[in-house]
Write a structure and sequence with these properties.
single chain, 184 residues, mainly beta, five-stranded mixed beta sheet, five-stranded antiparallel beta sheet, 2 helices, 13 strands
Length: 184
């Protein structure tokens, strides 16, 4: 790609920026008890600040059915509050259903029955495909070194549900980043 509209390209500055950062993904997983909540966390570590650019994730949609036991009903029973551990800053005003901000979203559970057809039918298939398209959710936020990304999750189902989230971004080495971010 040619930068036609740039005044000049300075290789030394580009190499210095390249040496001070690299792409990284932080992963968070959790199990949320039936009718309860849990607090999950992932450490940003002391390597440097973490500039999150996108989020991807999935969750199970299990519930207890009176006749068939645990079924995959396709309903988003998990809602969460994303929190910056440095200062306990809440990213959302309320608990948001995970399906609204995670992609690909619903994860089928091969161990459960699905609720696509009538549950009273004599034959119930195993869990159906989620039908979700994968497109990362844009989420730009700078998490400071030595902090944590927290997720307070609530489950309104009568079954245990699980989630997995990946925060995709750039690690900014602390020696370089501390000087540039202190004034922010």
């Amino acid at each position: 790609m040619i930068r036609v509209f740039s005044n000049k390209i300075e290789a030394a500055k580009l190499f210095a920026a390249q040496k001070s950062q690299y792409s990284e993904t932080l992963v968070m997983s959790g199990v949320v008890p039936a009718g309860g909540g849990s607090m999950s966390r992932v450490a940003v570590s002391n390597l440097g600040h973490f500039l999150c650019l996108k989020i991807t994730g999935s969750m199970s949609t299990l519930a207890v059915h009176a006749v068939h036991g645990i079924v995959d009903d396709g309903v988003d029973h998990l809602r969460g509050q994303l929190i910056d551990g440095a200062g306990q800053r809440k990213m959302f005003n309320d608990y948001i259903p995970l399906s609204l901000w995670l992609s690909p979203g619903r994860r089928r559970d091969a161990t459960a029955l699905n609720a696509i057809g009538p549950l009273a039918a004599p034959v119930v298939d195993t869990a159906a495909a989620s039908g979700s398209l994968f497109y990362p959710t844009e989420f730009e936020y700078l998490f400071s070194a030595n902090s944590e990304i927290l997720l307070d999750v609530r489950n309104d189902s009568t079954a245990i549900n699980r989630f997995d989230i990946a925060f995709h971004g750039i690690r900014i080495f602390s020696g370089v980043s501390v000087a540039g971010v202190k004034g922010v």
